[in-house]
Design a protein that fits this description.
This protein is about 65% helix and about 0% strand. The protein has about 575 residues and is mainly α. Helix 17 runs parallel beside helix 19.
Length: about 575
């Protein structure tokens, strides 16, 4: 009896559970044995792999070889006996939603994998501190990377995350956050993948630690110092999603006592500004763009540089928009230096020169739009510099952005940028035409109603257009607002470019701009086209609408008063 009690005390409940599942798996139909042979996943393979992970990486025991698989081939036996190979297969299999659901629902894989990853990270840190050989440190590091990768794949399935216990989700969030301190870039990458999956899925409520103030400096540190392009991409995505979640929670989530909103101190965007996010983003964007332009790449890895660039640009745009709103509402927060704004502006033009993917060009123009919004606010008012205010150096004159844009376009980069802007506008008009045709097919009476709405007796064409704008204002969607800002900036840059470079494309630009000004594609794009100067329209032999001529703006220096 004493022996039984002693033996039972040394066996964990998790191990007993896995052994029972393995016993059940051995009694299943063995038509398929290993993943990849028939396209089906044998449950016993999953259970045995989890059991061996538990034994080796959690309990510290040797992996036993009693697999009871006498009827399978030697190749399969070798693959099954090699735990590292099976762990990598498990990593791939977790991308399948049915496999992920089985692992979470029946095997408590989140608990086993998270514990194995945590112990591997601790062991690797201990061995590195003791000065052990790199080969000794590599084994637990690789095991942690694979376990974190499995968890990242599992949590991408929203239905699977909904079946997880909240305590498991909270544990995964803390594990991923702690893993960012690893010196191995591949481990940090899997931690960021897990962080993004949790913050962008239904588990974000249980993983609020990932978007609190204490997490932001870690993301920014990784963004600044990593040499892997995929890490830069996911760090930018994590910061961007943190801004989204913080904005959604601000003013809504209250304490149990009915007190003020969560995180009553400075907002996350102000913290990001005080951590120097603007300058860091400008540097990373410039490095990725330089690599794409054929220069010696600073970043390496298997990731797509243009995807990483797109994530960084989107973060920059969201960061500036949120910071501008904070400045207008409270005039308080962090510190935004003028050199950071100018560095972002310069980096954006480098992107326009080196990248041609439409979504990257669109994101670059959105970033330039946000920078020019700062110009409009600077022109309208000066910032307070009292205690607790958002500090900008007294010499900060954001109107210097436009002369810099004109200088870029007049230089060697100008010809290629002008050509890309023309292609971008052609794509926007083509998309608008396709959308209009789809709407017309779906709602054939829309066009007749639109014409009837603006056919008011005794009114001029311009008055009818103004009425149409008022009627469409409420129907303006977020996508249309984004199209407006990017098209507006594209036309503004063409207006600032030397006419000799624009004239080469005047035959393509003239019908594009005429269609945009006609209102064929809605109010948003017509308003964007109205940002050009009368002089630019005269050069294209286009009539000047009354709303443009009345403004008296020349040379493309129209003020941007649009609210973001």
């Amino acid at each position: 009896f004493a022996f039984i009690v002693h033996a039972a005390s040394r066996i964990s409940l998790v191990q007993i559970f896995c052994w029972l599942r393995c016993l059940m798996g051995s009694m299943l139909d063995e038509d398929t044995l290993l993943a990849g042979q028939t396209g089906a996943v044998e449950e016993s393979f999953l259970i045995r792999t989890l059991r061996d992970i538990l034994n080796k990486h959690v309990l510290g025991k040797d992996v036993l070889s009693d697999k009871a698989i006498d009827d399978i081939g030697e190749d399969s036996l070798d693959a099954l006996a090699d735990l590292d190979t099976r762990m990598e297969s498990l990593w791939d299999l977790c991308a399948d939603p049915r496999t992920a659901e089985f692992l979470i629902r029946c095997c408590r894989a989140a608990m086993v994998l998270s514990e194995a990853a945590a112990r591997g990270l601790a062991l690797a840190a201990k061995l590195a501190a003791e000065g052990r050989e790199s080969a000794d440190v590599a084994a637990p590091t690789r095991a942690s990377e694979v376990c974190l990768g499995c968890l990242a794949n599992i949590t991408t399935h929203k239905d699977v995350v909904l079946q997880m216990d909240e305590s498991d989700v909270r544990g995964l969030a803390q594990l991923a956050l702690d893993g960012l301190s690893s010196s191995e870039g591949t481990v940090v990458l899997q931690c960021l993948r897990l962080i993004c999956a949790l913050m962008m899925g239904p588990g974000y409520r249980s993983s609020s630690v990932l978007w609190q103030h204490s997490a932001i400096p870690r993301y920014i540190y990784v963004l600044e110092n990593s040499l892997l392009v995929e890490v830069v991409q996911h760090a930018a995505d994590a910061l961007n999603q943190a801004l989204v979640l913080d904005a959604a929670a601000d003013g809504h989530a209250t304490s149990s006592s009915g007190g003020p909103p969560r995180d009553c101190g400075e907002q996350l965007v102000a913290l990001m500004a005080s951590e120097g996010l603007g300058g860091i983003l400008a540097q990373r964007i410039r490095e990725v763009a330089s690599g794409l332009a054929g220069e010696d790449p600073t970043l390496s890895g298997d990731g797509d540089p243009e995807t990483a660039l797109h994530s960084a640009l989107c973060l920059g745009q969201s960061f500036l928009v949120e910071l501008l709103e904070l400045r207008q509402e409270r005039a308080s927060g962090g510190i935004l230096q003028l050199e950071d704004l100018l560095a972002l502006f310069t980096s954006a033009f480098r992107v326009l020169d080196s990248v041609g993917r439409p979504e990257v060009v669109d994101a670059t123009l959105e970033l330039l739009s946000s920078l020019l919004d700062w110009e409009a606010v600077e022109r309208a008012s000066k910032l307070n510099t009292g205690e607790g205010a958002l500090v900008v150096p007294p010499a900060a004159d954001a109107t210097a952005l436009r002369p810099q844009a004109a200088a870029f376009l007049a230089g060697t980069l100008g010809t290629g940028i002008v050509e890309k802007l023309i292609f971008f506008l052609q794509d926007k008009v083509r998309d608008a035409e396709s959308l209009a045709e789809d709407k017309l097919r779906a709602f054939p009476d829309v066009e007749k109603e639109a014409k009837a709405k603006t056919a008011r007796e005794g009114e001029s064409q311009e008055e009818n257009a103004q009425h149409a704008e008022n009627d469409e204002e409420k129907e303006k969607t977020e996508d249309e607002q984004e199209d407006e800002s990017s098209v507006e900036v594209a036309l503004l840059l063409l207006d600032l470019a030397p006419w000799a470079k624009v004239r080469e494309h005047s035959e393509a630009l003239e019908p594009l701009l005429a269609d945009l000004l006609s209102g064929r594609f809605g109010k948003a794009l017509r308003q964007a086209a109205s940002s050009v100067s009368p002089k630019f329209l005269r050069r294209l032999n286009l009539p000047i609408p009354t709303r443009i001529a009345a403004s008296g703006m020349e040379e493309g220096h129209r003020a941007r008063s649009r609210s973001r």
